[in-house]
Amino acid sequence: MRITRLALSTCLAIGAVVFIARTATAQDAKADLGKTLFMRRSCSGCHAIGKGGRMAGPDLMGVTARRSNEWLRAWLKSPETMVKTDSTAKQIYNEFQMIKMPNLKLSDEEVDAIIAYLAVAGGGGAPSMPKPKPEAKPRNASKNG
Question: Domain residues for 41?
Answer without folding.
Answer: 31-121
